[in-house]
Amino acid sequence: MVFSLAMSFTDWNLLSKDVHFTGFDNFVKIFSDEVFLKALWNTIKYVIFGVPSVILLSLLIAMMLNRIRKFQWLFRLLYVMPYITPLVAVSWVWRWLYQPPPMGVLNNILLNLNMPTQQFLSSTEQALISIVVTTVWIQLGYCIVIFLAGLQTIPSEYIEAARIDGASRRQITWKITVPLLKPITLFLVIMQSISFLRIFTQVYNMSVQGSGGPLNSTKPLVLYIYEKAFVNFDMGLASSASLVLFGLIMVITFIQMKFLNEKSD
Amino acid sequence: MIKADRKYTVTAYIVLTVLAVLMIFPFLWMIFSSFKPSWEIYDMALLPKSPTLDNYKNIFEFSGFPKWFLNSTIVAVITTLSVLFFDSLVGFTLAKYKFPGRKILFILILSTLMIPTEMLVIPWYAMSQKLNWMGSYWSLMFPGMISGFGIFLMKQFMGTIPDELLDAARIDGLSEFKIYWKIVLPLVKPALGTLAIFNFIGNWNAFLWPLIVAQDSSMYTLPVGMAYFSSEASFQWEQIMTGATISTIPLIIFFLIFQKQIIQGIATQGLKG
């Protein structure tokens, strides 16, 4: 940590013995590097698209799951599987699903339904969204399990009482269930934001040569850091970029603390 | 009212089933494709028409998968054992011994939880190069040998063990290490189990650090080997899917065996937060 901080002010390349103090040069350099800015913006896009989708979907599904009795355990089991299995393997499976026709499974399904085929990973516009979809698929089960556990702690008397008072199901959902789930939702929003900020493996394995392509359109900060540090061996620049990432994570954690404090006041 | 309830339940089952299919389909596709011969691979039928084990034979004979499988097993098993031992020992010390600076030490350990791996890889890399660890199992494993989260977990659980129990053991003449080994550890077995399961999964699936530090193909772990193998397989999807199946199946089996602890472990994360 301290080491990273110190490094971000130097031009060390790991091999040479002499390290020069360069002040804020590295930060100036990365913020004038178009690729870095692109990666920063992509990372924010991953969070903006990914977090709300995963939270809303998992909340909805957890509520349904909470209503049924039979096979609840089986559904939960199946939903968690993608979260447990190796990211590299599932990334490659999805990469195949996304391929252009006649190889890609999704495009073949679209063809069979007489719908226009999509470029998915090979288009600069769709690639990032495609990776978000895969990541939502991975994270969904984790959030569902946590939401379901939260739902099951809500005393059934609350719901019964509201029912007797004549509240509709919609009212019960919005006035009782959702407010009671607020702490858990907040926890999940933070955890998911951090995990989308740190996105790397999916992108590395779903873009050609692990480049974050096409044309850097999917490259996140972590991939930028990886390339700077371990392909170009510019440890100084990489450390500066990793501090920016750390800053983002700290900002989110700080917002969480603030929300949690408000709640307990 | 009751009619509406039934309607809702039926809708719920339909939606949940569709979702279950969407969640499972990629896995089924992966597994069945690994048994397809190459000429059948773009056939859109899920089940292979002429199932074959050729892909597996090919991978076991001509690729590094057996070695990568071994590497992953070694790394995951050793790091997990190490985490269990050191985390419980440190957790025990922090929970049951009073010494100056123990609060600060605990806060320092907790604060390491905030720092993401991505930020640590550069100092880790510099360190393993300085100490000449590059190219050894040691370089793959050292960042995972001890975990701040595990120490936290252990301290919390061991804090609930009454001091009287430990004092009684002391009077009976047990050494401090024996107290830890024979009395404290058996009492925190469930927590140790959860810690072991999540550590094993995490280390088995780890990608970024092994990718950086494993420079020779004989040192790849399964995920790293899988990534290199797949990008070199020039879109022979039956080969890639066989590799993916080999790296996924052990974890699916592991998951099915320990599903109760795993789902419980995830569920309690949220309730604590």
Can you walk me through this structure?
The complex is a heterodimer of chains A (265) and B (273). Chain A has one domain (2-264): Orthogonal Bundle (MetI-like fold). Chain A contains 13 helices and no strands. The mean pLDDT of chain A is 86. With 265 residues, chain A is mostly helical. In chain A, helix 3 packs parallel to helix 7, helix 3 (34-67) runs antiparallel to helix 10 and helix 7 runs antiparallel to helix 10 (182-197). Chain B is mainly α and 273 residues long. Chain B contains 14 helices and no strands. Chain B has helices at 2-33, 54-62, 65-96, 102-111, 117-130, 137-141, 148-158, 163-171, 176-187, 189-205, 208-213, 222-232, 237-257, 259-272. The mean pLDDT of chain B is 89. Chains A and B meet through helix 1, helix 3, helix 4, helix 5 and helix 6 of A and helix 1, helix 5, helix 10, helix 11 and helix 12 of B.
Task: Write a short abstract of this structure.
The complex is a heterodimer of chains A (about 260) and B (about 270). Chain A is an all-alpha fold and about 260 residues long.
How far the N terminus sits from the C terminus of chain A, by CA atoms, comes to 33 Å
Task: Report Rg of chain A.
Answer: 22 Å
Per DSSP, the total helix count of chain B is: 14
- Label the CATH architecture of chain A: Orthogonal Bundle
Q: What descriptors fit this protein?
A:
heterodimer, A: 265 residues, mainly alpha, 13 helices, 71% helix, globular, B: 273 residues
Map the helices and strands.
The complex is a heterodimer of chains A (265) and B (273).
Chain A: H1 2-7, H2 25-31, H3 34-67, H4 72-84, H5 87-97, H6 105-112, H7 127-153, H8 156-164, H9 169-180, H10 182-197, H11 201-206, H12 221-230, H13 235-264
Helix pairs in contact in A: 2-13, 3-7, 3-10, 4-7, 7-10, 10-13, 12-13
Chain B: H1 2-33, H2 54-62, H3 65-96, H4 102-111, H5 117-130, H6 137-141, H7 148-158, H8 163-171, H9 176-187, H10 189-205, H11 208-213, H12 222-232, H13 237-257, H14 259-272
